[in-house]
Design a protein that fits this description.
Length: about 375
């Protein structure tokens, strides 16, 4: 009997978070169809290496959008990929103009015409005759090299180990450095023996660079610099931590794949919708219109729009607003480090908060499955 093949076409922006979305979709199809070979196609600038750590994914195909520039013959690029599939599942965003990168639109147009699939759905094409999906927590199995690096990185560390991503791939989700100084000082006061790691990538972790990491390291004695290490090494650093702290970011979607509790500084345009069975706590802004763009439409306050037009932080991400949240953040950190709340308690509280803010239903990527008692990350060894 020939093995059925399914491709998840999730070529979009090169952000790591979009790659994690793709991997979760593929994992859901594999859960529902264990005998299938399920593969993923994503932007080559996204998390290819992470995809290779997901056991449910057969292959990860990297699309270099430079090969889909206007005027370039893209047939050679397409011929590098398998053309024949039993099932093709495409990101629904592919059915609309991208709006920020014409190469993405051209890829989907050319690929749609080139690929041969018996059954398709998404990307403007829909059918009811498609395999079942069974969402579950997604676990990454990191390579030995990355884990050995993390063991050496944390050698001699105190307890708890806390990994911090101080920024995001978006300027509007980048808390100021002064805020992080206060957070680290507060955590040290609560946990005098704690060790810290800074992670991120220069140029992608906006408003923060390796030089800023060095400044922090000079200020705090047991703060270690994981900045600009490769993705899998940084994930291994997080995996060996008792707590991971960050704003909304694609790296934080990936971090949940190694099972470390997540403390997130929420704010701006979108809520935390990619969850993974890992205990988490959101520090929500006081703003009545959060999340101010997705999924309820653009409700962003006029002053915030003006601030963003001048490359300044919106109100909820400015120091004055975040400073008031530090007591809540430190309390949430303690709850997560000490394991006071299960993932199910955390996610159901999160949904109640979002419902109170006017978002109906279960506004999470995996929907109702994400609040089911079985949707829990495997116990960490």
């Amino acid at each position: 009997m020939t093995t059925k093949t399914l491709l998840v076409n999730w070529v979009y922006a090169g952000a790591l978070g979009h790659a994690v979305e793709a991997f979760k979709q593929a994992n859901s199809f594999k859960n529902g169809n264990p005998d299938f070979e399920v593969s993923v196609m994503i932007n080559s600038e996204a998390g290819i290496d992470l995809g290779n750590c997901i056991g449910s994914i057969e292959n990860v195909y990297a699309v270099d959008l430079h090969e889909f520039e206007p005027g370039i013959q893209c047939q050679i690029a397409l011929n590098r990929f398998p053309r024949q599939w039993d099932y093709l599942f495409t990101d629904n965003r592919a059915g609309f103009p991208c709006g920020f990168d014409d190469r993405i639109d051209r890829f989907h147009q050319e690929f749609r015409n080139w690929v041969q699939a018996d059954t398709r759905t998404g990307g403007g094409e829909n059918t009811e005759d498609f395999p079942e999906m069974k969402p579950s927590a997604l676990a990454a199995h990191l390579p030995i090299e990355a884990r050995d690096f993390a063991a050496q990185f944390w050698h001699g560390s105190g307890y708890p180990r806390i990994a911090i991503l101080p920024s995001s791939g978006s300027h509007q989700k980048a808390p100021p450095l002064e805020f992080w100084t206060e957070v680290i000082a507060g955590l040290i006061e609560k946990y005098p023996n704690a060790s810290f790691a800074l992670i991120g990538i220069t140029g992608r972790t906006l408003n923060f660079a390796d030089s800023d990491a060095e400044t922090f390291i000079a200020q705090f004695p047991d703060l270690r610099n994981g900045f600009d290490q490769d993705l899998l090494r940084q994930l291994a650093i997080i995996e060996e931590s008792q707590l991971y702290v960050s704003p909304h970011s694609g790296m934080s979607f990936a971090a949940q794949c190694v099972g470390t509790p997540w403390l997130v500084i929420s704010g701006t345009v979108v809520h935390e919708y990619v969850l993974n069975g890992v205990p988490f706590r959101c520090i929500y802004p006081d703003c009545d219109v959060y999340p101010c763009v997705y999924p309820l439409g653009d409700r962003m306050l006029a002053p915030c729009k003006e601030l963003l037009s001048k490359a300044r932080l919106p109100i909820c991400m400015q120091h004055d607003a975040l400073h008031l949240k530090i007591p809540d953040l430190l309390s949430a950190a303690e709850d997560l480090i000490e394991g006071k709340h299960s993932y199910i308690e955390c996610v159901r509280s999160h949904v109640r908060e979002l419902n109170a803010r006017g978002i109906e239903g279960v506004p999470l990527m995996d929907g109702e499955a994400a609040i089911d008692v079985g949707y829990v990350f495997p116990a960490r060894s």
